[in-house]
Specification:
Blueprint: H1 2-46, H2 52-56, H3 70-101, H4 106-120, H5 123-135, H6 143-167, H7 171-179, H8 184-195, H9 197-212, H10 216-220, H11 239-247, H12 252-285
Helix pairs in contact: 1-12, 3-6, 3-9, 4-6, 5-6, 6-9, 7-8, 9-12, 11-12
């Protein structure tokens, strides 16, 4: 009797396992199908707009032919680059503090609470916040305000990822460094951070991928600029806002450029992720 019961239980578990695998494979296949469909539509419409003029000419006026996205590309690179320069040290240092110094302190609890709020807050709310403190008070839109809004989005991502990755480092590694007489700051930066560098870089790439396509915060901060400009103290063109405006326009030329800009952002994030993973894989294997 016991043997028959065990056999029936074994068969039920096998059926449940098979059902779970089938459902998991079906969900994965559905997700991949949707992703491939999106990439196919993006490539088929975006490749037609990619040419030399897109990188050498500025956005065209309404109803005009030709034009490109040079001013929007340069503006996006400047704002995203400044945001990365600001958010990277702040996020990494805050993650180190939460893990190595103030793990159980009230300051750490408050910081985690604020981080959770910023991670879950819609980006348009952060854009309105920056508009209230950096645009309305000054009286003009600017690239600096756009970079500030993007930094507020990127800092929580980098900080939370850094904290989670540092917690995965074995405590025995820290104890060995302390046993050799290394101070805490050196253990935190030269031992644990190096051990978790791949995960930290992944978090940074996630932050870059998120802010590269943000439109709502830039509508309230950087606005847009039809002309080429490198002055971040004034309104600055950027790819997300240009894509948003051109995609809803009645001009075929603008819609074509919108597809090209969307493809450019997608390929830039993809290439950045691939290069970073290949680079760090070679470093680890060496």
């Amino acid at each position: 009797m016991l043997t028959n019961f065990n056999q029936q239980l074994y068969k039920r578990r096998r059926r449940a396992n098979a059902q779970g695998l089938i459902l998991s494979m079906a969900a994965m296949g559905l997700g991949l199908a949707v992703l491939l469909w999106i990439l196919f539509v993006l490539l088929s419409n975006g490749l037609a707009a990619v040419d030399w003029n897109m990188f050498t000419k500025d956005t065209p006026a309404p109803g005009s032919e030709g034009g490109g996205l040079r001013n929007a590309i340069v503006g996006s690179l400047m704002m995203v680059g400044l945001s990365v320069l600001v958010s990277t040290p702040i996020g990494i240092l805050a993650g180190i503090y939460l893990t190595e110094y103030g793990d159980q302190s009230k300051t750490a609890e408050l910081t985690r609470f604020v981080t959770d709020i910023m991670l879950s807050a819609p980006s348009i709310v952060l854009g309105l916040f920056v508009y209230a403190i950096a645009v309305a008070t000054v009286g003009n839109f600017s690239g600096y305000a756009g970079s500030l809004a993007l930094s507020l989005i990127a800092i929580p991502v980098v900080m939370r990822t850094t904290e989670n990755m540092l917690r995965l480092v074995p405590s025995s590694l820290r104890e060995a460094a302390f046993a050799l007489g290394a101070p805490r700051w050196k253990v935190s930066t030269m031992v644990t951070l190096r051990a978790a560098k791949s995960g930290v870089i992944t978090g940074l790439l996630l932050a870059v991928a998120r802010i590269s396509g943000e439109t709502a915060p830039l509508l309230f901060t950087a606005l847009n600029n039809q002309f080429f400009s490198t002055d971040m103290g004034k309104p600055m063109a950027n790819l997300p806002v240009v894509i948003f405006q051109f995609a809803m326009s009645p001009y075929e030329n603008w819609i074509r450029l919108a597809w090209g800009g969307a493809l450019l952002i997608t390929l830039a994030v993809l290439v950045l992720n691939i290069l970073a993973r290949v680079f760090f894989r070679e470093k680890i294997s060496a």
